[in-house]
Amino acid sequence: xxxxxIAHSSHQVLLYYLYTPIEDPESYAEKHRELCxxxxxxxxxxxxxxxxxxxxxxxxENTQNYIKAxxxxxxxEKMEFKIDPSDxxxxxxxSIKVRDEIVxxxxxxxxxxxxxxxxxxxxxxxxxxxxxxxxxxxxxxxxNDYEAKLGHFKDAICPPIGNFREFPEWLDENxxxxxxxxxxxxxxxxxxxxxxxxxxxxxxxxxxxxxxxxIVKYGKDPEVQGRDFEGLCYVFDERVEVEVNHTETQKVITxxxxxxxxxxxxxxxxxxxxxDQIIVCSDCRESFGLFCGxxxxxxxxxxxx
Length: 305
Ligand SMILES: [Zn+2]
Ligand SMILES: [Zn+2]
Hints:
The protein has helices at residues 25-38, 60-71, 125-132, 145-150, 167-178, 191-202, 214-220, 282-287, 294-304, and strands spanning 11-19, 42-48, 51-59, 80-86, 94-98, 121-123, 137-141, 151-153, 182-186, 208-211, 229-231, 233-234, 241-242, 267-268, 277-278. The protein is an alpha/beta fold. It folds into three domains: 11-98, Alpha-Beta Plaits, CATH 3.30.70; 113-242, 3-Layer(aba) Sandwich (Oxidized Rhodanese, domain 1), CATH 3.40.250.10; 267-304, no CATH class. The protein has a five-stranded mixed sheet with strand order 4-1-3-2-5. Strands 6-10-9-7 form a four-stranded parallel sheet. The termini are far apart. The structure holds zinc ion (2 copies). One zinc ion binds next to helix 8.
């Protein structure tokens, strides 16, 4: 679905970013808050001098008006939106924050990557799919380990990191493995790879590519239809996960932590002080409960006694 089509759903979820200079992020954020509040949008938006990064939910009418407003503003007229239909809000509230980086890679000051100056070559979903089939290619998942665990591209390297800021260190330790290879990077909506692929180039890798629009756009592409993405795509809202692969190559890659049965969904451990995202199948949820293990279950029971 592209941004000009109106979904036949009561609500929509938008995902978007743009690296573009914003001179006074504080006042920009304040004005933007008024716009979002007038449209009763909810979600998370980060504004910085390097641009804007957001995901919001709202009624279909209000989200369409939001897109119109953004496209009518010189700063954000080039914004590309990924749109998912929904039957409700997917965020509990609106949060707009000003940050140094709209995605934090955490490189010191002048070493920070400006994707408008240095970034990997952008590939369309089709080009990315074709490039994956080529010899001497490695695919790097540019997300955190708990996102990649739920679903990732077939044969992708999924770095064991809990935060994007840990990438530079991971790269230092895995440099040899990537040497002389064509490197493909991907993330949820594309924003992290803008910096990650730029960082790889800065670190001396020449053949670096990024999936334009990320997994979300790849799943909506009418031609590739998410082909060879295995599992589900983790999202940072109440949906937790969205489907990507609409072809026969889709499969479940996650297993229940208790019985080992294939099971595709995360759930939060019911012991509130734990609340970890874990994979527990429906049967085990029924017989044992949605808990990491005996310890969390006992703690919850004790708290209710
Ligand atoms: Zn189970
Ligand atoms: Zn737990």
